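Structure first, sequence second, as always.
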């Protein structure tokens, strides 16, 4: 629903329905609701004191606990509360993926990459073992096994020809669909 926020007065396309008495405390629509913008709604529910920032990241564990019945039940447990606060202080709540990336980058040195590439080349040579390709004995277009295999069962020469035909076909399709060609075609037809 669009309209003006009842708190700040800003016009918004979408307004939130804010219950004056929280639904968790038994509030209903009949007891009073306000149509407010998302920013004002976050300011109201933003933190333990209300209005201490915007977005989920600005919420303290206490504020998150107030918003969720499950967390409220857990937060009542002093052991859970202690563990959560300690983990937050240590920074264990967030996993550092950049550190993982650095470890992987450090492990794949240029020497190791070269060894890995050579190993893959050896495996491929062993699998081919005198064959023209893994799947075909010769080129499916011209039948030769003298020219090296390129891709899709075609030798380098036939693959090049196929690619050229595809490019020409695409160019012709583009030309035929051009307005200039259509105009020339219409002009060349005999009028009845």
């Amino acid at each position: 629903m669009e309209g003006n926020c009842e708190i700040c007065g800003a016009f918004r396309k979408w307004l939130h329905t804010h219950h004056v008495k929280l639904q968790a405390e038994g509030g209903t629509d009949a007891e009073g609701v306000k149509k407010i913008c998302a920013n004002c709604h976050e300011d109201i529910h933003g933190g333990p004191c209300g209005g201490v920032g915007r977005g989920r990241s600005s919420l303290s564990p206490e504020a998150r606990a107030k918003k969720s019945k499950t967390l409220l039940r857990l937060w009542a447990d002093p052991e859970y509360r202690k563990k959560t606060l300690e983990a937050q202080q240590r920074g264990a709540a967030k996993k550092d993926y950049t550190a993982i990336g650095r470890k992987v980058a450090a492990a794949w040195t240029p020497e190791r990459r070269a060894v890995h590439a050579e190993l893959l080349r050896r495996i491929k040579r062993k699998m081919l073992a005198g064959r023209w390709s893994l799947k075909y004995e010769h080129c499916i277009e011209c039948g030769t096994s003298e020219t090296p295999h390129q891709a899709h069962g075609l030798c380098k020469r036939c693959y090049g020809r196929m690619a050229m035909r595809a490019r020409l076909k695409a160019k012709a399709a583009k030309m035929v669909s051009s307005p200039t060609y259509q105009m020339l075609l219409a002009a060349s037809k005999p009028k009845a």
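Margin note: Residues 38 and 124 are 59 Å apart (CA to CA).
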